[in-house]
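Fold sample X.
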Amino acid sequence: AEARIAELESMLREVSSKLEQAQASELALQRQLQTLSANAGAGFSKSRQHVQKTEELPPDLASNHKPDKRCQELEQELARKNEEIEKLKASLAKQREENKELREANSALEEKYMKAIKLISTLRDQLEKLKELAEKKGLGKEVAE
């Protein structure tokens, strides 16, 4: 029974470790997503300012206006950042699902561990009662052996 408890404790430590790693990874992904969102927002803001300037041009000039190279670069950068954000969101969702599975596994192991602890406690109590009964009947030496 103690070997089984040791095995359960080992499994519990392993799952807890994986859970902590997954949570740290999830936090890192969230930070990276926030950074990318902020960077993409800044690029979008610059691109939007350019579009607004274009809209302010007189109609005859606006129709002939072509976005400058910097604006095109910003729009491309924005598109790349948005793709990266979507990939990170998918990765974060996957990480959250894995964390959920690890939490469930952790709970199941903790439950098995608690059952094993209760069983050992019950067995110890029964052994004590058995020893007491044996001593009352004069068989204390035999039980001690």
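Fold sample Y, listed below.
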Amino acid sequence: MPPLTGNCLNIVLQEDLTIRGGAQLWLMNCGTRLVAAGHKVTIILPSTSLLLEDLNDGQMTVETYNADEIAENPDAFKERFTSILKPAQVCVTLVRQQRGQFQNVNFIASCIADANLKTQLIAKTGTPDPTY
């Protein structure tokens, strides 16, 4: 993401589920509105996400990852995620249950903390679930 001027932000949105449900549509529509407001938005999704068809208009940068592989070995993806997060002022991620060794909020937080990034993490929840 190139540096922006003025009041524009570099924002990363992240979702780990592949479905096209209400929360996923909210995140995608949030990204669309942020772009319309002049912000640079990157969305990180599993490579099998059903949102990908809706994101081919080039407004947002789309980054994908293999959901099965990250569940087995999140550390193998840490450098890539960190490089995506590095220029971002904000990352909004939807809170999801742990899959294998991967829990998205903890993983994103560790990428930010371990690289000493200035990125602010916002973990968006739906209905609170204490098992998460």
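Sample Y note: The first strand starts at residue 10 and ends at 14.
Also: Residues 22-36 form the longest helix (15 residues).
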